[in-house]
Amino acid sequence: MIRLLPQTNRALLRPPTTTTTIQACGVNQNSRMSGTSRYEESVRLLNSLQSNAATIKKLRGQRENLQAMNLPQCRKYLESLRISDKELNALNIIHVSGTKGKGSTCAYAEAILRHQGLRTGLYTSPHLIHVRERIRIDGEPVDETTFAEEFFHVYDIIKKEHSDNMPAYFKFLTLLAFRIFIKMNVEVVILEVGIGGEYDCTNVIEKPKVCGVTTLDYDHISILGSKLSEIAWHKAGIFKKDVPAIYSPTTTEAEEVLISRAASKSTPLSEAPPVSSYNFARQIAPGISGIHQFSNISLALQLVRTWAEKCEFSLPGVSFSTKTNGFDVPLWMCDAIESCRWPGRSQVVNTDRNITYLLDGAHTPKSMEACSEWAQEEIVHLKKENVKKILLFQCTADRCPSTLIQYLKPLGISQIVSCPTQLYSSVDKSADSTNLNASRDEQMEKAAQCVKSWNESMDHPNGKVFDCISSAFEFIESEASPSQEILVLVTGSLHLVGGVLNLIETKTHQKLV
Ligand SMILES: Nc1ncnc2c1ncn2[C@@H]1O[C@H](COP(=O)(O)OP(=O)(O)OP(=O)(O)O)[C@@H](O)[C@H]1O
Ligand SMILES: [Mg+2]
Ligand SMILES: [Mg+2]
Q: Which GO terms describe its cellular component (predicted)?
């Protein structure tokens, strides 16, 4: 049995007490550009595929139709790109859906497999600073030159054949990721679903090696439904005939849906065991903090073991089993779990200006609760109980500020700051961080709601709304001085977290993402 030390993000997992080169299509005008500007041009064109807020609103009524069109469209694009099912299947994919913990689970699985010398591809969303973070080769974001080169290959072909029906941003990136993974000859791809599962464009793959469903919670309810059973239906949409699927524990109603969908698709389904059922070879501090990460670790361990069994890849010190049970986790796997890095999730950044940042991309009820618990433990661990605390918070899309914010009340925060999740007040369409999906006015309105909802419950309300992340950041930084230490919790949106990480990186010249 493993022993979990005090319920802290630093909780250590204890050992048992006993013991085809494809040619670029045509000569694009961009081939004359220098490396960086070619990359910038690719990001600008990519951003032009984002739907703006007005279009999203207009299309809302046709959502179901559009959803159903996603996969047939993807198949057409793949055909144009000459990417066959056979090539996709040869990527040996681990496909992961779920509401919370997809990225973390994928990151753990990737770190473990890379540790065994496999050439890995990792596709995740969203990104924090650079769009290239979404497509990783051997754990590192694909480089600018490769990104731009493959971008124009895909863009030129699709533009030529589908100019009146260009793929939207996420769909395009998914196609680009497949193209890059094939070109880079990766041996395994860990693929995170964008939204839902059933209609998500990542679901164009026909034969993954194994599927995972992480913790379920309420998010994107206008698309996926407002009941956990409806949400589970979408997530189980990635299940395939005879492809094993493993899920993190969930409610009975959601579990019933997962089971019945698995049965109807002839998917062997099992639940990931608690992390306490594994025997870790040594005490470890997992690379992503917080006890909520334990379920992601267990799921990742199961996915990796099942993947290895299906691929007949030997994992030293791990025995295969027909059961989804805890197993002996050898030293090298402990090292891999510890080495996993997943910025923007329970991340602590110390600066030399008397400010400590706690950053976490929580944006659903369950993750906000997890974030609050993690932050409380981190504050104690860092001995910052008596330090002035500021909350930088924003919630986006159809999420409700008052529902989410309430989880942060026990943290002793004295001031809330909110702003749109835009880095600067003027939009730079060639920037990696540009997000056109949400209108500025709507975001300002949301920021005001966040502050209002927080202030209502405070004895001394002093919330502030700024017009962009950088003005909010400058305000917060100006609040600190040698005699005034500050602790800042940044949460509610990964875009907000990414923006702040970007600004801290620029200011301190440290690499955080
Ligand atoms: N198992 C979990 N249970 C509850 N909250 C979690 C869990 N795993 C991660 N989180 C929370 O969710 C946030 C995002 O984590 P992660 O990137 O792993 O999830 P995701 O499913 O990829 O999210 P997204 O919807 O942003 O793509 C974290 O910052 C953390 O607050
Ligand atoms: Mg999500
Ligand atoms: Mg994600």
A: cytosol; mitochondrial inner membrane; mitochondrial matrix
Annotated binding-site residue? 125: yes
CB atoms within 10 A of CB 214: 27
- The answer to whether 99 and 217 have CB atoms below 8 angstroms apart is yes
In what helix (H) or strand (E) does residue 137 lie, and over which residues does it extend? strand 135-137
Does 40 count as an annotated binding residue?
no
Cβ of residue 196 lying under 6 Å from some atom of ligand 1: no
The Å distance, Cα 306 to ligand 3 centre, comes to 22
Q: Rounded to the nearest 10 degrees, how much is the dihedral formed by the CA atoms of 323, 327, 332, 336?
A: 70
**Radius of gyration, CA atoms only, the chain:** 23
Alpha carbon dihedral 471, 476, 480, 484, in 10-degree steps, equals 150
Say whether pLDDT at 23 is over 70.
no
| Cβ–ligand 1 contact at 366 (below 6 Å) | yes
Amino acid at 130: H
399 is annotated as contributing to ligand binding: no
Domain assignment of residue 482, given as a range: 347-508
Per cent of the chain over pLDDT 70 is 91
Question: Rounded distance, CA 422 to CA 323, Å?
Answer: 47
Asked if residue 22 is part of any domain, the answer here is no
Specify the pTM.
0.93
Q: What is the CATH number of the domain that holds 397?
A: 3.90.190.20
Reported ipTM: 0.99
Residues with CB under 5 A from ligand 3 (ion): 102-103
3-state DSSP call for residue 485? coil
Specify whether 327 is located in the same domain as 359: no
Segment 311-317 mean pLDDT: 96
125, 217: one domain? yes
What does the pLDDT look like over 333-352, one tens digit per residue? 999 999 999 999 999 999 98
Cβ(332)–Cβ(304) below 8 Å: no
Q: How far apart are CA 349 and CA 372, in angstroms?
A: 17
Tell me what the mean pLDDT of segment 239-259 comes to: 98
Question: Do the strands 135-137 and 120-123 form a parallel or antiparallel pair, or are they unpaired?
Answer: antiparallel
The values of phi and psi at residue 388, to 5°, are: -65, 130
Which of 320, 339, 358 is a domain's end point? Answer: 339
User: Are residues 418 and 393 in contact, defined by beta-carbon separation less than 8 angstroms?
Assistant: yes
Quick check: 310 and 368 in contact, CB under 8 A?
no
